[in-house]
Each structure stands twice: as C-alpha cells, then as structure tokens.
Amino acid sequence: MIMEFLVHMKVAPIDGGEEREKQLREQEAVRSRELAKQGILSRIWRVPGRRENWGIWRADDCDQLHNAFVSLPLFAYLTITVHPLASHPNDPEVQTRCATEDAAPSAGIAL
What we know:
It is elongated, with a radius of gyration of 19 Å. The protein has one domain (about 5-105): Alpha-Beta Plaits (2-Layer Sandwich). It has a 4-stranded antiparallel β-sheet. It starts with a strand and ends in an 8-residue tail after the last helix. About 5% of the residues are buried. It is of the alpha+beta class. About 40% of the residues lie in helices and about 30% in strands. It contains 3 helices and 4 strands. The chain has helices at about 15-35, 60-70, 90-105, and strands at about 5-10, 40-45, 50-60, 80-85.
C-alpha cells in the first residue's frame, strides 16, 4: 500500500558560489522530474520569499522515501521535516469518490 507524506524542505545556503548553486539546482530539477515520473513526488509548492517548499510525496515505506531524499542533489543542504498522512473520513475527495460509487448502477441491473 502506498503511503503519503507531507514534506517540508528548507534549503540552506549552498557552498561553492553562484555557478555551483546553478549546477545543483539544474540537477535537482532533473531528479525531481524523475521522482515525479516514478510517482514518488506527487505535488510541490514553494514558499514565497523563502528557500523552502512543501510537497506531497508517495512511497511504499519510509525506506523508499528516505532513498528518494538522499538521491536529491541538494540533499546535503536540506532540512527535511516529514509528516506521515493518514486518511480522514471527512476528506472531500473520499466523500466525492464514495458518493460517485454509490450512485453508479450495479453491473447486471437494467434501469
């Protein structure tokens, strides 16, 4: 079963000057796209005016999540806070999905 995590990342100042930072950020963008294609990085938002972001990450377990983090080129400069998520009975998406399923006609029943 896939687990979901709300993840906060704060980026510290990067050593090595502007060119090094540019290089790491380009590598980070490539790796982030790869993680998105794998379904691990689901969504990401930046925090305006800060070197921070929040994201929704998905993984089979905490080890897979950790391995995704350490694969990031900026990992050495990140402070990462992970909040595991559990489903909530009042989640509008779950309620909408259940209502749609309840309204769908059952197979083999003519209307």
